[in-house]
Amino acid sequence: MPNTYSQIYIHFVFAVQSRDALIDAQWRESLYQYIGGIVRKRKQHAVAIGGIHDHVHLLVSMNPTISPSDLIADVKRTTSKWINENHLVLGRFAWQEGFGAFSYAKSQIDNVIRYIQNQEEHHRKITFREEYIDFLKAFGVEFDEKYIFYDV
After folding, report:
1. Mind listing the pLDDT tens digit for each residue in 52-91?
2. Helix H segments across the chain?
3. Which 8-state DSSP code applies to residue 132?
4. Cα–Cα dist 49/35, whole Å
5. Is the pTM of this model over 0.90?
6. Regions in the chain scoring below 70 on pLDDT
7. Are 151 and 84 in contact (CB under 8 A)?
8. Which of 26, 36, 70, 78 has its CA 20 to 30 A from that of 44?
9. Distance separating the N- and C-terminal Cα atoms of the chain
10. What is the pLDDT of residue 152?
11. In this structure, are residues 17 and 94 in contact, taking their beta carbons and an 8 Å threshold?
């Protein structure tokens, strides 16, 4: 789209199905690189990718050429296939249905990047569920407890 200018930063959060601890530290970086490739292929820019064994945080500088839902659907579908084809887990890998998407101003991006890069440290103090509910509350997102990422 000529003459279309934008600056849209979206912080995505999505979890492994049943919140199983399946994202092994041995291949986690490869997963993040793969996610970055998917985002680039969709003509978006992955600013930061991080997480721990049961969920991923992805900060994307978005173009208005794709919806956030379409981007994350592609990321989840493609990475599930990659993980399963490479037999990185026992059994079948899948992401939990749904995701969180939170927008930030450019002035906040450095803090968001640090937050994403320090997930292991962060989760020594707080569970993923607590973190996710904190995000929803901080951003004023109405939610129903029964649809929050569930535990095993």
Report:
1. 999 999 999 999 999 999 999 999 999 999 999 999 999 9
2. 25-41, 68-85, 109-117, 119-122, 128-138
3. H
4. 8
5. yes
6. 1, 149-152
7. no
8. 26
9. 44
10. 47
11. yes
Name the residue with tokens 């939610």. 143
Report how many helices (DSSP H) and strands (DSSP E) the chain contains, helices first. Answer: 5, 4
**C-alpha–C-alpha distance, residues 31 and 125, integer Å:** 25
Q: Which residues of 36-71 are buried (b: 16+ CB within 10 A; e: fewer)?
A: bebbeebebebbbbbbbbbbbbbbbbbeeeeebeeb
Chain-centre distance for alpha carbon 141:
17
Q: What is the largest CA-CA distance in the chain?
A: 49
Backbone dihedral angles phi then psi of residue 118, each to the nearest 5 degrees: -110, 35
